[in-house]
Amino acid sequence: MATAARNGVPLAIGLRGGFIAALSLCLVLLTDTASGVSDDAIWYQQADSGERQIEFYFFWSRQCPHCLEAHPFVENLPQEFPWLRVHSTEVSASVENARLYMKLAGMLGEDARSVPGFLFCGEMYVGYRSTETTGAMLRERLLACRARLTGDGMAVAPPGTGVALPLLGAIDLRGWSLPLATVTLAFLDAFNPCAFFVLLFLLSLMVHAASRLRMALVGGVFVLCSGLVYFVFMAAWLNAFLVVGELRLVTLIAGVLATAMAAINIKDFFWFKRGVTLSIPERAQPDLFARMRGLVSARNLTAMLAGTVILALAANTYELLCTAGFPMIFTRLLTLTLTPLPTATYYLYLVLYNVVYVLPLTAITAVFVFTLGARKLTVREGRVLKLLSGLMMLGLGILLLVDPGLLNNGLMAIALLAAAIALTALTARLWPDGGTSS
């Protein structure tokens, strides 16, 4: 069962509708009585043809703009699914209708606090975004319910939602779409040339201290601070998108920004730091280098760790320039899910993203500590990473502009990553000297 309580109703409409709904529900509490009707009879009925018919309850309010957006979709359902009977019920002007909504929701252990509400087959969904997102999800759940009634297991998942894996059999990927997209985007974002540049240079200097413990502490604190700064940055994006809701204009702006950042990163492969660039500014590098050298010479462990924190905060301020598009795209994706997520779930996804984001940095630190070796990121390697992130970001930006609903498909994120890797490898091969001169 999935529920959602966030509707994004404008304040003036929300207050008026909320007052009416609150009044109706108060009356419901005074008048509601137990019903002897069985649960099965509420969700299913026998049609004249003898076929079992699914009862679909659509609760809405005239003051709710999302309800009005859902009407065309709901009205078309009986034509699409002849075995479905729709009960369209307006709740703000009728105590009886509000009582019915509250009773059905209560049977499922839910509260009838928001509209539009969709109840069928013992499931309840609240909120509506579009036909392509919420509508698609409701269709899938109706098909799954129909399959259970008829015993036709093949009807549960529409084509393209599952994949056969050795030993595991058929796996339905719909429930894994957002986690897959999270891991995929975070994995690509993790190969941040700016972060690699700073960490590799820092650890190369720490080699001269000939202390694995110091190197591990400095590298570990740097990676931890990088993850925390990124988390705060992404939380700011997330809250901004939650405030503005699912306005199409905001998604278009995010798509335009992502596409522009992608073009700059792709440009940097061929013409590095010519014109506009998303790299650590030349004027900031001397200060960063001076801070790093200061850490090597620090004798006091406390001072060294404090200096590492300050360095990490300063470096990450510039590092955000390199791949700021990915956090923006991902947090926008979180706010465009089929149904709104609980607040805690949003932040759990941010935690997952950032855990994946710091894995390559953690691996680099571990290798340096184990080998006490020195390694720097070459200009060529940095530009190839920029090309890879730019191509991936370009694909995501185009999807935000053309069809944001496709971002809910985890396979799409994997396909974009595979295409970006293939194009990067091909481009780097065809232009082996691309970006070697500045």
From TrEMBL:
UniProt xrefs under Gene3D superfamilies: Glutaredoxin
SUPFAM superfamilies reported in the protein's UniProt record: Thioredoxin-like
Transmembrane spans: 12-30, 176-203, 215-237, 249-266, 301-326, 346-372, 384-402, 408-431
Domain of life: Bacteria
Alphabetic keyword roster: Membrane, Transmembrane, Transmembrane helix
Alphabetized InterPro entries for the sequence: Thioredoxin-like_sf
Identification of the protein by name: Thioredoxin domain-containing protein
Organism: Candidatus Methylomirabilis lanthanidiphila
Lineage: Bacteria, Candidatus Methylomirabilota, Candidatus Methylomirabilia, Candidatus Methylomirabilales, Candidatus Methylomirabilaceae
